[in-house]
Every structure is written in C-alpha cells, then in structure tokens.
Amino acid sequence: ILIAFINCATSIFAGFVIFSIIGFMAKQADLPIEEVIKGGPGLVFIAYPEAVTQMPVPQLWSFLFFSMIITLGLDSMFTLTETITTAIMDQFPMLRNHKGKVAICSGLTGFFLGLTMCTKGGIFMFELIDWYAAAWSLLICGITEVIITVYVYGHRNIFVNIQEMEINLPKAMKYYFLTTWKVLTPLSLIFILLLKFVDYIPAYSTNTQEKYVFPDAVQCLGWAMSLVPVVFLIVGAPLEYYKRKSEGKSTDMLSLLSPSDEWGPSFVKNGVKKPAGQPELVELL
After folding, report:
1. Cα dihedral value 157, 159, 160, 163, nearest 10
2. Can you list the residues of the chain whose pLDDT is less than 70?
3. CA-to-CA distance for 232 and 122, rounded, in angstroms?
4. What is the predicted pLDDT for the residue at 39?
5. Which residues pair with 205 in a beta bridge?
6. Cα 153 to Cα 47, 203, 283, 284, distances in angstroms
7. Mean pLDDT score of the chain
8. Is residue 122 a contact partner of residue 116, using CB atoms and an 8 Å limit?
9. CA 99 remoteness from chain centre
10. What is the CA radius of gyration of the chain?
11. Is residue 103 classed as helix, strand or coil in its secondary structure?
C-alpha cells in the first residue's frame, strides 16, 4: 500500500512540477500555454531541460536530470526483459537452463525492432507505437487477468498461496485486497476501456508545425499492433482445449478452469514433505 501511495503521490508532484515549468515558459515567451509545448517527448527533452537551465549551477542539475532519464530507461528495460524471458521459459521449461541465451535473444530482437525508431521518420513510428501499443488491448488483458485470478482461481486460493509463503495478512488487509480485486479494479478497468473507445481519435503526430494525422494504412498498422495481445487470448483457449483433448485429458469446464497437476509450491513438487500447518488448496468453483 505504501508503494502504491508513493507512486501516486510522485505522479501528482511531477504534474505540479511540469505545469509550473510550462507556465513559466509561457510567461517568458508571452504565448498561450498550448502554443509553448505539446505533449510527447518534448516534455522530457524541451520542458525539463529548459527548467534546469534556470536553476543555480545548471550543469549539475542537467547531469542529474539526464542521469535520472537513463536510469529510468534501464530500469524499464530490465523489467521488460525479465517479463519476456520469464514468460518464454514458463511456456518452454526446457529453456530454463539457458536463461542467459534467452535474455540475449530477447534483447537482440528488441534491438532490431527498435531500429525502425532510429530512422529519419523514427519519431513517427515511436508516436504510433506509443499511441496504440499501450492502448485498449492491455486493458482487455488486465480485465481478463483479474477475472481469471479472482473469480476463476479464487481469492481463497490466493490467500492460501500467500500463507504458503509465510506471509500473514491482517484481517483488514484481506478485506482491502478483496475490495480492490473483486470490485474496484475490474470496474475501473472496464470504465477506462469504455472511455478509450468513446473518446477514440486517430493517431497523430505533434512533431510537425501542424498536427499530422497518420494515413489510414498506418492507422491499420497501429490497430494490428493493439490486436496482437488479444489474438493470443482468443487463439490460446481453443488451442489448449484441443491439446488436452489430443492428450486424452478431461475437457469439461471444471477441468479447464482448474490448475494443472504441476501447479503448487516448489517444496511440494520436488517431493519435500509439506510443513505442518500449511493449508491445502481450496477446490475451485
């Protein structure tokens, strides 16, 4: 909870900082705020550098600012790479003994895909990806994840897993998590998803003198990028059904919505006796 509040408070504080800077720049240039700077990369590479030049010892503040930008980028890349490599190794367990090679291949793939943003028109590719990649598709994935985790797997099983990690949650914390998992988070995500479609406007670039709206073919490319995560959800379910059917496993709804035989704490799967007092997994549905 502390981390969540710090995260939100930092965002609010950063909002005050950036709008103070933009207001100062507008007053200095005697222009309306909307004409001083537009959203996008310009906030980082124009607004903030302009602000640090007005501070005492601007060289020091410039060094600290761009060092922060570099570390933020590296931190994001570490998280992204770890997420990708973990997903690949979970899907293909035989690769777990080759984590370094998987990480190198993932990094090289991202590097070659990112070369498109280093070309003459790379800023337009960057804005297209920024517009569509983190759009409604991630909200659909989030809603699906919440529903499957809380309503299919069940909040009781989640609390059992937390207890297996020797984490004892106070009763107030359990009610807090239940409220957020089962009510607030799904409703918030659905509300934001609806707003995304209601307020949808075609992608455009602000890096030209006049707003440049991407042509229809480029808009279709953006929609295709957004559809990729959703396609995995749509295609993955029937593939899993036919895979279980070909292996002679049960394909009824209860079996499809139950954890696999390999699911569970590592000390149980490796044949180590389960410590006394550890709760058993609650039956689903």
Report:
1. 160
2. 35-43, 208-209, 261-262, 264-285
3. 28
4. 62
5. 212
6. 47, 38, 9, 6
7. 81
8. yes
9. 22
10. 24
11. helix
